[in-house]
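retry 2 of 3: previous attempt timed out while embedding 3-isopropylmalic acid. Reduced batch size to 1 and resubmitted. Inputs unchanged:
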Amino acid sequence: MNFNIAVIKGDGIGDEIVTQAMKALETVGAVYNHSFTFTDVLMGGCAIDATGVPLPQETIDVCLKSDSVLLGAVGGPKWDTLPGHLRPEAGLLGIRSAMGLYANIRPAVLFKPLKKACPLRADIADRGFDMVIIRELTGGIYFGERGRRTTENGVEAFDTERYHETEIRRIAKVAFETAMTRRKKLISIDKANVLESSRLWRETVHKMAVEYPQVEVSDMLVDNAAMQLVKDPSQFDVVVTSNMFGDILSDESAMITGSIGMLASASLGDSKRGLYEPIHGSAPDIAGQDKANPVATILSVAMMLKYSFGLPKECAAIEHAVDAVLQAGARTPDIKDAETTQVVGTRQMGELICREIGK
Ligand code: IPM
Ligand code: MG
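retry 2 succeeded.
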């Protein structure tokens, strides 16, 4: 089968990591008899430079016509002083919203060969962990009313955390359905001891729990969750949380997998079309130096195969290849652990993974 993929390389290391992920897709395609047509589109800082805006309409059109979207990363110091609505990040929020991608799936798994790269105490790392964070992606404080106003105390700035029941219900449904395919344990993370929006979140999740009697649901306050993630990450299976809490907690869970360069993500809405991107940023400090870890982006296309194209075997082939390469001791410079036998660059890491997929 042929799949049309819109490709947003973006800024910084985006080009390098996406190139390796495309190679991984092509390798899987050669083995399993699929082909991919890639269409490059601009978003982020490079789009600002070329067109004056971070998300040109043409990009939205191509993405909405594609079978799925692959994204590297956007942003960089060059565009940091632009007003909020013209920053590269506004492009990212814009495409998530334009495509209706309200569910962000971020699996955090400690690969066995990376146990020594995990910054947690050895007895905690030894237990391993395998969780998935379901982050609400098109609501909350990221999209609430914001602005500045002059008061008698000087300028005041505000952002608004706001959720309506429908938004909570649809993300909770994704979380319950995900829990049903896993260990049936769902933890909903909020700040209900302080925030009204969190209290509605909690009530809505509990109302839905009645429809999923097999799923064990509990609530956890976000500050406690930040602590529990480093105390014992093995207690988590599926986590559901708001846009901002999910942003923060997913970086924390990425780090305990050994490196932020390991975490993939899928952003999904009501159709099969999704947007797949590593959770890390554009790392301008190492851009163009063949140092970036392409694994998160390669694991993101593995998720694309599974979630958008219904190809779980092909997804597993990539995941196994990553595991095998790590098992053999190859590491990009972001991961330095006692098991490292070979420090490799972006390109070589991609090549090793492709070779393993082809075996
Ligand atoms: C992420 C990123 C983005 C976010 C930024 C770049 C706007 O941190 O995908 O986690 O906050 O959603
Ligand atoms: Mg983030």
